[in-house]
Specification:
It is built from 17 helices and eleven strands. With 367 residues, it is an alpha/beta fold. It has a single domain, classed as Rossmann fold. The strands form three sheets. A five-stranded parallel beta sheet has the order 2-1-7-8-9. Strand 10 and strand 11 form a beta hairpin.
């Protein structure tokens, strides 16, 4: 008989954790949203810390990529499309210049939010006289349908401004640093559905830490949490799959094949974090006709291209890396709120700052 969320909570509370502080990172923004909505932090023993990690593609999309999209829409008379939450991501621009795609749209640029890559292809077919640029940011789950779209003979007037990232290299970077900041990992269910649970075996094999793949219900998240806590207590780390309904060891073979056929994987910049090896998707040469970066020169100067740029005072990078909680950011609840975001973590529904705000955390933590 399947256990309820209350059953898993009772099992977790019965674990002998007295006097032991345990930090468990959840990588996925969807996991963080489920944790906040279900009030799991308040229900767990105080010795357990749930750390939101680098699971928001909007938050780590390079500042120079957003700037490039803004300038393409303003200068090149293209019809630019992007997923809706990308429109509000701010860049560092001089006063009086558009700081987001939303502001560029208000200046007259033709920018349209979409929910699916197929919408971008449909817009290109409906506007054959226009160049349509799809600003595609996202992790593996988003990039798989982007790959499918670009491999299915897209219209010749459709270009991609690609800003896709793989998830696991960011976690590997944290674990290879001198301050990983967590004792166990809850791995992302959506990504594992595409890429397979085995993609996270390195957590156990290379670093000796417990790991469990979780779905998005409180039951699945608590089952994964119980698993990694038991692994810690028993000193027997392994990779557990607590989302067997959708996740297999090898993932979705069709989606993985499409990703491999459409993209190569190269080093890539993560906003506020820096360049991470083997973490970014790039269009393969046979799809070069659809690469916006080959059609239009980059408007970004050397200063804008430097890695790690966040707005002044913004601590989003530290939030993304799990080194501080959202309400510990210097701007949280002061200058930065969902109605006037300063940093990208307050924009997206997968950003930890936005999630915490929506869950009722409205004031910054006392210093």
């Amino acid at each position: 008989m399947p256990r309820s969320a209350q059953d898993w909570l009772d099992l977790i509370r019965a674990l002998p954790l007295e006097g032991r502080r345990v930090r468990v990172m959840n990588v996925c923004g969807g996991h963080e949203r489920s944790i906040a909505q279900a009030g799991l932090r308040g229900a767990l023993p105080s010795s357990i810390e749930l750390i939101p990690g680098p699971g928001c593609p909007v938050c780590v999309c390079p500042e120079e990529d957003v700037y490039e999209a803004i300038q393409l829409a303003l200068r090149e008379n293209v019809l630019l499309t992007a997923f809706g939450d990308m429109l509000r991501v701010p860049v560092n621009a001089p006063k009086g210049e558009p700081r987001s795609l939303e502001q560029a749209k208000a200046r007259g640029a033709d920018i349209r939010p979409i929910a699916s890559p197929m919408e971008a292809a449909a817009l290109a077919r409906a506007n054959p006289q226009r160049t349509v640029v799809f600003f595609a940011a996202g992790f593996e789950t988003t990039m798989a349908p982007v790959a499918a779209m670009v491999l299915e003979a897209p219209p010749p007037n459709l270009l991609l401004l690609l800003s896709g990232r793989l998830t696991w290299p960011a976690v590997a970077m944290l674990l290879n640093s001198d301050r990983p900041g967590f004792d166990a990992l809850v791995a992302p269910g959506h990504v594992a559905t595409v890429m397979g649970a085995n993609e996270w075996r390195f957590i156990v094999e290379d670093h000796g830490l417990p790991a469990a793949v979780a779905g998005f219900s409180p039951q699945s998240l608590l089952a994964a949490l119980y698993s990694v806590l038991r692994q810690l207590l028993e000193r027997h780390p392994f990779l557990d799959n607590c989302y067997p309904e959708l996740v297999t060891p090898a993932g979705n073979a069709t989606a993985r094949r499409l990703l491999d056929q459409a993209f190569t994987v190269d080093e890539a910049n993560w906003r506020g974090v820096g360049v991470i090896p083997a973490s970014g998707f790039t269009l393969r040469p046979h799809l070069a006709a659809h690469d916006a970066r080959l059609r239009y020169p980059s408007p970004a100067d050397a200063q804008r291209k430097r890695a790690g740029q966040m707005p002044p005072g913004c601590d989003c990078a530290q939030v993304v890396l799990g080194r501080i909680y959202p309400d510990e950011c210097r701007l949280y609840g002061r200058a930065c709120r969902p109605d006037a975001p300063i940093g990208p973590c307050m924009v997206s529904d997968e950003g930890a700052c936005r999630i915490w705000w929506a869950s009722g955390v409205r004031t910054p933590r006392a210093a």
